Amino acid sequence: MKKINLKNLFKDDEYVKKSNIKFFELDGDNLVLKMKPEKNQFNAYNILHGAEIFALMDTAVGCLSIINGKKAVTLDSSVNFISSISYGEEIYSNTKIIHVGKSTEVIEVVAMCKNKIIAKGSFTLFVLDKVEITGREFLETTK
């Protein structure tokens, strides 16, 4: 069983660093990640590219799975893009666990900006393995 230190989870992830995604807080099964997008993450219309919003949402559900002791990958997802954000704004995730089984998990996630829904999605994860979590105190110190 692999050990994962939550404090280092984002520090060792190059994609998360490149995307400017940061851990904010965990409250029950609601994991809040924040992203302050850079100019290069915006499309020709000067709105945040949908792939960047999806990345935040996918990262949130994957991290929530790890926090709950499971190494999992996205098997299926459905995302509705509802609104857009402009440069200089920050988006964040809100998650909710719908199902946890031996081999799959279903997690809903909403991307928000200033209490406005940007996108809403449902992710089905395939559980690869269990993981041993260390660094849980990190979750308590981020609130």
Write the layout of secondary structure elements.
Elements: E1 2-5, H1 14-19, E2 21-27, E3 30-35, H2 50-67, E4 70-81, E5 91-100, E6 104-113, E7 116-134, H3 137-141
Parallel strand pairs: 1-7
Antiparallel strand pairs: 2-3, 3-5, 4-7, 5-6, 6-7
Organism: Peptoniphilus faecalis
GO molecular function, one term: acyl-CoA hydrolase activity
Pfam families: 4HBT
Question: How is this structure best described in words?
Answer:
- It is a single chain.
- This protein is α+β, with helices and mostly antiparallel strands and 143 residues long.
- It has one domain (2-141): Roll (Thiol Ester Dehydrase, Chain A).
- It is 20% helix and 48% strand.
- Strands 1, 2, 3, 4, 5, 6 and 7 form a 7-stranded mixed sheet that branches.
Sheet having the most strands? 7 strands, mixed
In CATH terms, what is the architecture? Roll
Poorly predicted ranges: none
Shape: globular
The separation of the N and C termini measures 29 Å
Radius of gyration: 15 Å
Highest-level CATH class = Alpha Beta
Q: Could you tell me the CATH topology label.
A: Thiol Ester Dehydrase, Chain A
Along the chain, the helix and strand elements come as: EHEEHEEEEH
- Classify the secondary structure makeup into a structural class: alpha+beta
Number of separate structural domains: 1
Task: Report the count of strand segments.
Answer: 7
Proportion of residues in helical segments = 10-25%
Q: Count of DSSP helices?
A: 3
Give the name of the CATH superfamily. Answer: Hotdog Thioesterase
Mean pLDDT: 89
What fraction strand? Answer: over 45%
